[in-house]
Amino acid sequence: MAEGDRSNSESSRIDVPGIEPRNAPSEITNGETNRCKIFKVRDQTIHENSIDSFKPKILSIGPYHHGSSRLRGMETWKRDCRRYILGRISESYYDTVEIKELVKKARRVYSENITMELNKFADMLLLDGCFVLAFLTEIKGKSVENVPSETGMISGTPGTTSSDTTGHTGGGQWQDDRHQDEAIIREDTVRDLLFLVDNQIPFFVIEEIHKLAVGEGETTETLKRNIAKYVEGVLHHYPKAIAIPAICSNDFHHLLHLCHMFFRPSQKPEKRNGNRAAANQAMWHRAMQYREAGVEFRVKDSSTPHSLLDVTFSNGTMEIPHLSIDGKTESIFSNLLLFEKGCSHTGRHINAYVAFMSQLLSDADDVKLLARENIVRILNHEEEALNIFRRLNGLAIVDRCGKDYYLTSTFQSVEAHYRCRFNWWMAWLKHNHLTNPCVAVAALLGLTALLCTIIQQLLSILAHFKVVH
């Protein structure tokens, strides 16, 4: 397979956060208006410490990173997968009307002008699509674990040097080394395949290759269900409110779009009334500030199905789903944030959630408070969690008056509680004087005695007026 033009992958970029394509094809056919564009992330508009969140470590999918020298090592594995699934495709295959139309349709999905020749672009789509199918599903019992290879495959994972695994050095020269950490390679492959916003191919390409591989043996719904199950397993540590059948009843445009669907909140967006400018200037407060106002924090009950984004407030208690903050958190959410910006009709729920969490966690004490309640779990220091959400918040765009802002009622309820001075006084009393049981009992007895004294005085006054009159 031709490796393609590296210059094409380096120059095809658009600006973020505006996400306005510079060279986007103008031809849009009926039915494609709402299709999510696949755009190229531009390094110049991303914070220096966040750039690695968008770069593939070992695997290129689609045209934007195609031909990169540090990612070439995976091309041999891709060819093994294509040969195993489809065999050798005749050159005449690319000349069929159906494939030419498919390739033209795929070109229109990318925000940048793809300059590859028709056959090279089609070959890239076929190669990457076969790899996706082999990695995420079983085709007639064939999975990536049992792909025969002439290039050093070890149980479905290519050998590599440690420098190649990091994706920062080396020329991508894969070696048959049984001492390499295959789990890390697989984890990096999953990350590059599922979570990178500009490392995608249209899902309809994968569907077409699936038809070539299995004929009439399996339906597209079976394919969607199998891939959705795989993605659900990868996202197992994130709570979800949506089930596989509901996912499969909708069309997802590529694999990151599928991941995004699993994060959809249960709450429906609500239209906010009042001053738009004032609403957008309103901010969530710190967790410690809410605590001082008497707000209690509680992790959402895991036995009840809910999304990670389902934040609720009732009777002075804010319930927040559990979030594990690890080395993958920033990359996943960074790419989901940019996906929402480039595909606004899917909603900006991740943007709203990230803004909420970043404002809630503004200090190490805030992180400690939520960690005590098992709302967040951090693998390292509190400062790392703070820095992650600060960088994420730099990518987030939130319109609190927008039609897809789902936290309107929650924000209004919490804000009303926060502004009530009585709640502050009761919280101060509770935190400073009622923490010791003995002090609490003494305070209760004293309050009871005071009330009895007041009642006694009132009765005496009433008796006096009764005697006078």
Automatic annotation (TrEMBL):
Q: Which domain of life is it from?
A: Eukaryota
Comp. bias regions, Low complexity = 155-167
- An example Pfam family from this entry, by short name, is DUF247
Which portions of the sequence form the region Disordered?
1-30, 147-178
| Protein name, UniProt field | UPF0481 protein
